[in-house]
Structure formats: structure tokens, C-alpha cells
Known about the structure:
Blueprint: E1 3-12, E2 15-22, E3 25-31, H1 37-48, E4 50-54, H2 58-71, H3 88-97, E5 106-107, H4 108-114, H5 121-129, E6 142-143, H6 156-165, H7 168-173, H8 176-181
Parallel strand pairs: 1-4, 5-6
Antiparallel strand pairs: 1-2, 2-3
Helix pairs in contact: 4-5
Amino acid sequence: MKNIIRTRIYESPCGSLLLGSYGDMLCLCDWLAEKHHGSVRRRLESLLRAGFVEEVSPVTEEAARQLDEYFAGRRRAFDLPLLFAGTEFQKAVWGELLKIPFGETVSYGSIAQRIGMPKAVRAVANANGANPLSVFVPCHRVVGSDRSLTGYGGGIEAKHRISISTSPCAVSLRRPSCLAAALCARCIRPGARLTGTSSSTLPRTG
Length: 206
């Protein structure tokens, strides 16, 4: 029998996400508005030799519960087994994304340095863009070298909202005045553009 990826839609405050589980692991959390959604789906089908079925699973139900807590400010880290379907290089990049602390951001160049390939900034950006586990693997915490927001699978506005609403000060107080204060040096540069200049040419992050 063909392997199965069980999927369900999750409505986040920033847009619709497709959650998918393979066995007892989460393999997919992808923005439905993402123009590359089809390529992510085909990659999973090919690498896992699996077909998609619209069917709730214990894994996607738990993922939805943890996302509810995350967007409500009651959770800062996820506790789910994740399945990385990609190349060894992509897996190395995604592994580094998991190490970015809650409420902090890093640049593409910093990730390239951390995996020991300082000149592979473009390849790192491409790996970010291929991330099939948005939010759980926090590519929204990757910004341009000048701290400006760069492309994102759910759209720049979604990245902006996630970055603000999950910043430490926004989570601790949960009031409008705090959301404005969240645009700090630790999160996003004050007055940062929603698209960068040189950084805006980099692929979107997942």
C-alpha cells in the first residue's frame, strides 16, 4: 500500500496552513497562499513516496493545539517529532533554524557561517525557501543583513505579524502598545522595510 501523508487545514491569525503527518511525525506545515506550495507537495510525494489524504491524525491535531498556544502567547517552543524531507544541505540549514531562540533573529549570512559554509548565503536562502515546516522550523526569524524583512512563504505581512506577535515583549503583555514596542533591535530594526534592497532579491523564507 502506498505511504500516506495525512493532512488538515489550520487557520492561523496570519493565514491558512496545511498540516501534514507521515507516520508519527509532522512533515508539513505550509502556507496555502504560498505560490510554491505545489513544489513542496511534489517534493514530499517524491522523497517519501507517499500520497496525500485529507484526514486528521493525532500528530496534526497535536500540531494544531500547539499552534493555538503559540499564537496566543502561551508557548515559545514546540514539542513534536519533525520529519525533514530534503537534501543533506537543506537539513543542515533547517537544523540551524531550530536553534534560533524565540524572539531573536539572524541573517542568511549568519546561518551560512554556522554550518561552516560562509560563502553559501544564496544556497542558505534557497534552503530556507524550501522549508516545508513553516513556524515549527522558524524561518520567519531570518532577516536581511540590515534587519529588514525579506520574502516569506506566507507573505511579508504574515512574517511581520508573526515577528511582532511572538516577540518577548508582545507575549508578556499582550496589548497594542507593546506590539509597537516589539520592533526593537532584538527583533526587527526600527523602521525596517517590509522588503529589503539587496536582501529583497533573496528567495522567500518558509
